[in-house]
User: Fold this.
Amino acid sequence: MKTEAQRRGLAPAAAAAARVAAPILKKRGLAEARIVTEWRAIVGDTVAERSAPERLLRGRAAPGAVPGGTLRLRVAGVWALEFQHMAPGLIERINGFFGYPAVARIQFVQAPLPAAKRAPAPPAPLPPAAEARLAAMTAKIDDPELRARVLALGRALERRAARVSKTVTNKLSGPARKPV
Assistant:
């Protein structure tokens, strides 16, 4: 039985993204795109923070050859030795995730990992005078949800105005000059 979303023709965004990314990842040697998208789920948080899969090289299907490919794994230099000791367990976890022997061995590449994206810092509080002015402006709004949203908009506009005036002041003052 189809779900309502399927009847309407809606599909999960992850499925669409995987279809778009698959050819690109395949060119980079990551035919099994899920090894990139699901890396944290496959190996756990600790290992995922210190490593990133670069390439999955498929082995040749020679008679008597071990099935599976070679995973090129980028590892922060200080963790390389630790990861070499963990390699058999990692191979087991990866193959267990896929349900077939996708990886026969791991080749470690010692290189810095891409910087993790940080969440933006919370905005600085407004001066009490600006906060009081906004509260007075929104006091007549009866709906608490609407009042909260209008207050949030007002705070954002106040911060933006403060940034703009600071930039203009810095440009007008010009470079500092030394007395002659």
Remarks:
- The radius of gyration is 27 Å.
- Strands lie at 51-57, 69-75, 103-110.
- The chain is about 50% helix and 10% strand.
